[in-house]
Structures are given as C-alpha cells and as structure tokens.
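Q: Two folds, back to back.
A: First:
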Amino acid sequence: MLRITETYKDKKKVILKIEGKIGEPGIWDLERLCSYYLHKTKKQVVLDMRGVTFIDRKSLTALEKFKDKRLEIVNCSPFIRSLLSNLIIYKD
C-alpha cells in the first residue's frame, strides 16, 4: 500500500511524503499528483521517500518521464537510491 501526504512548503514548492511500496495502483496517484504540480501549478515537487521500502520496475518507468522536470527526490534508502540512480537526480 502507498501513502502520499502533501505538505506545502511555500508558493513555489510542494513536498510529497511517500510511505510504503510504490507499485500499482499507487504509482498512478503519485504520477497524477506530480503532473498536476509540475504542469498545472508550475511548482517544484520534492518527493520525500524516507518511508519507501520498495519500488517496482513499472513505477521506475513512470517516474522516468519527470527526469528533466522540477522534481527532486530526497531521503532515499541506499536500496531505493540505487534503483533511481539512472533515472532521476536526488539530493540527500
């Protein structure tokens, strides 16, 4: 199960706290939220993945389309960081 908590940092940035396993159907909710904030509101999106324990291949592919956008991933475990390393720039 995937839990997403939206936290607004300021007018230009939103933090999405992600907890659980990222896979279907949860990835579609995450993808929809990222698209909304990046394209409709033009906010920077920060994915706080401290609580993520697993991410499947389909979810990695879904996140790949945000690779060159204003998406930042923080607080990854070493396992999740290794899975994301070729897709998205993350900051710790």
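A: Second:
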Amino acid sequence: MGRPITERRLARMREVLARRQPDLTVVLENVHDPHNVSAVLRSCDAVGLLRVHLVYTIEEFPELSENVSGSALKWLELVFQPSIEACYRTLRSQGFTIYTTYLGDPARSVDLYDLDLTKPVALVFGNEQRGVSDEAIAGADGNFVIPMMGMVRSLNISVACAVSLYEALRQRRLAGHYARPKLPPTELEERLQRWLEREGRALPIELRTSDPPALSE
C-alpha cells in the first residue's frame, strides 16, 4: 500500500503539478559534467518545466548527483532523443519554436531579453567546451545570447540555463501562465499517481479528487 501521505504534502504536489509548463522545455546536447546536468535539472524543476530533452550522440549521459539536483530527477520527465534532428522533429510537431545558445557571429543571435518566452519555446544548451553543434544551430529557428558586461564572454552552462529559465518565468508570471493549470485534469491525476509511486506513498480514498488547486502568484 505504501506509506501514508499528509494532506499538506499532497496539496504541495497538486500545486506544483498545476503550475507545470508543458510549453517550455530545455534541450541538453552532450553536456558532460554531472554537476552541470544536475544543476540544470534543479533549475528546470524550480521554474516548473514538465520535461527535458536529452541528446547524447558523443558523450555518455553522466551519473547524476541527487545532492546537486535536489531530487529534481523525481519530478521531471527526461526524454532521451537519438539525434538533434529527431529531437527537433518532435519539438516542432508539438508547436515549439527552438532557440540555441550561440556565441559566434553576433549578427546571427538575438538578446535573451528580446525573446518572447511566453510562447511554446525550447532552449538548447550544448557541451561545456564545444557549445551547441553546427547541426543544432543550423536546424534551430534562431539563436540567442545572454548579455555580458565583463571581460568574460560566457557563463557556466548551468548558470546560463538558470538565467534563461528565470527570464521565461518572469515573462510567464506577468502573462498569468502560472495562475491556471495547463495540463488536463486526467493528466494531472495520472502524474500525481506516478509521483506518489516514486515516493512509495499511498493516497487515501478520502483525499482523492480531480479538482485543481486554487493557485496564486
């Protein structure tokens, strides 16, 4: 049957699921360092992403640290893609616009803060040394840069991802995206059941309800 769950813990799970943003996602392409991947996943969960796409065609997917990820692995859906082409095909079939982080020719990139991140958007981050691949850049709908005012030209990938996602959060909060559930009630309940199973929890019959929680900003 599993361990019983408190009403407070259950309410927290429902509230988090009701704020998930299925139309905002991150793609990691051959990101090598496990601490970077874990930190990225922690930021993704914090901003309310539903899933993250992983493309590992050169590097092996690293063993992740739960201490760094803050247990985010339990709350995110990780989708392994066989190639950038397949990943982009999947994203476009779901209506996403795809942007890569690109530090090359400035004329080919836009400022992060000029992007409309309230629309369905996928942000692609590449390997720590190589960056995103030429294939990823060529196949994307556009490229963006985070403005830098110092001598250093780039941020650590996990920091860059956090900065980008929190700009998306800022825009989406202003637009009211977190004020109403984006997932249908049946999917909310299905995902809640999976979360409970991962924690080894049992949901008492009297606590079962498909009513979405009241959300506030």
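Q: And?
A: The domain at 24-174 is CATH 3.40.1280.10 (Alpha/beta knot).
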